[in-house]
Design a protein that fits this description.
The protein has 164 residues and is mainly alpha-helical. Helix content is 77%, strand content 0%. Helix 3 packs antiparallel against helix 4. The relative contact order is 0.07.
Length: 164
């Protein structure tokens, strides 16, 4: 009797689940889950909406745009398109500045045409295979870095670490 009692006792302790307990759990789930689903479904939908909204705010903040503009900059090149739009806005501010020189106006004209080409390149690269798209995005980013640095210099802002 000792061995049988030990074996039966250890099997129940190891898993805690017996066929009878499993059947009872399934029966309880059949009753509880439909009742709880009616109560939990609206909470789950609300939580999913809040998570999506927080994600959208994070995306917009990372791109440096307003949340209302986020749909305009979707896709793999969205961040680059947002940078291009920001540079174009900076160029408009430089052109409208009272202290803008003739050289500044020439820079604005050249840079706007370059930004249009960069924007077209980003949009065209959306349909390219991944390696070509990434190479195109790196090239656009490098060109954009040059324009942004020159724009900041002309606006009188020296980036940290830049020679004075």
């Amino acid at each position: 009797m000792g061995r049988k009692a030990e074996r039966t006792h250890s099997e129940a302790d190891d898993t805690g689940w017996t066929p009878k307990r499993a059947k009872n759990a399934v029966r309880m789930a059949k009753v509880i889950v439909p009742a709880a689903a009616g109560v939990l479904a609206p909470l789950v939908v609300r939580a999913a909406g809040a998570i999506r909204e927080a994600y959208d705010h994070q995306q917009a903040r990372r791109m440096g745009i307003d949340i209302a503009q986020l749909p305009e900059y979707q896709g793999r090149g969205g961040a680059l398109l947002a940078r291009i739009a920001g540079a174009a806005e900076g160029l408009s501010q430089l052109a409208g500045s009272d202290r803008a020189t003739e050289d500044d106006h020439g820079f604005v004209t050249r840079s706007r045409s370059t930004l249009e080409q960069l924007s077209a390149s980003v949009r065209a690269s959306e349909r390219m295979p991944a390696p070509r798209r990434k190479a195109a995005h790196r090239a656009v980013s490098a060109e954009l870095d040059i324009i942004e640095a020159e724009l900041l210099r002309r606006l009188g802002v020296q980036p940290p670490g830049a020679p004075t």
